[in-house]
Amino acid sequence: MDKVNENVREKKQIKLGEIDSGPILIALLLGFIAVAIFVILRRRSTGRRDFLLTGLSESGKTAIFMQLLHGKFPATFTSIKENVGDYQAGGHSSVRLVDIPGHYRVREKCFDLYKHKAKGIVFVVDSVTVQKDIRDVTDNLYTILTDSATQPCSVLVLCNKQDQTTAKSSQVIKSLLEKELHTVRDTRSRKLQSVGDDDVNKPVTLGKPGRDFEFGHISQNIQFVESSAKDKELNTLTNWISRIM
Ligand SMILES: Nc1nc2c(ncn2[C@@H]2O[C@H](COP(=O)(O)OP(=O)(O)O)[C@@H](O)[C@H]2O)c(=O)[nH]1
Ligand SMILES: [Mg+2]
């Protein structure tokens, strides 16, 4: 009986050994290539490649743009037109970086031009004046987050000017914004109801209605980090770009 079993095992072993692994390897390789092509085409077809620098005037958007693209901290100048340039992220291919002017008259028009191509939105905050300007900062962030075009974007809240001793930390800024967004959401939704719904440009409801507002409830992936364009401390931003590009 044992002999019979041994014979069967031997036969099996011989058969396994005889299998030609060539076609299997070729099939695996072809499968891998097909998946890679699918992933690349999908990425291209979404057409979202831009990274937008947004936020109020004087938060440091142009300084960040100039540091990343030209390694310079510029003398002050107010931008009324967007700055556009290719940023080489590490060893990867480049992304288009757009510095949206912060002045309220041009801000929204310019943002509307680029928002459908945006993969990432960098919301730059002046960490020194944020508490004083909390309503303006929050209004601007609310408009961006409730825009239906930004729902697939990743968002980075960049708490800039951390070289200043009076700068608020990203944790403090996050909770200031969370509280204020709760209030702004109430005010804006009441305004919308009184005007009547405009179905074409209906903004997305932010977070969970009836609950305290939390960043964890929104559809965008949002993160809070610190930076100083002045001291060229922009690793938090460049690492984030490399991760999501
Ligand atoms: N201390 C400090 N000042 C900064 C920093 N980034 C920008 N600034 C200054 O803040 C002001 C506004 O910067 P700018 O880039 O023009 O802001 P933008 O209006 O958002 O483009 C300028 O005087 C900059 O020199 C920073 O990281 N630290
Ligand atoms: Mg500027």
Structural key phrases:
245 residues, alpha/beta, Rossmann fold, 2 domains, 6-stranded mixed sheet, 7 helices, 6 strands, binds guanosine-5'-diphosphate, binds magnesium ion, Signal recognition particle receptor subunit beta, GTP binding, transmembrane helix, endoplasmic reticulum
Strand order of the largest sheet: 2-3-1-4-5-6
Global structural class: alpha/beta
Q: What proportion of the residues form beta strands (DSSP E)?
A: 15-25%
Number of domains: 2
Q: Radius of gyration from the CA trace?
A: 26 Å
* Number of separate strands: 6
Distinct helical segment count: 7
Write the CATH homologous superfamily of the largest domain.
P-loop containing nucleotide triphosphate hydrolases
> What's the rounded overall pLDDT mean?
87
CATH fold naming of the largest domain? Rossmann fold
So what's the overall shape? globular
Examine the secondary-structure arrangement and name the CATH architecture of the largest domain: 3-Layer(aba) Sandwich
State the separation between the terminal residues, measured CA to CA. 65 Å
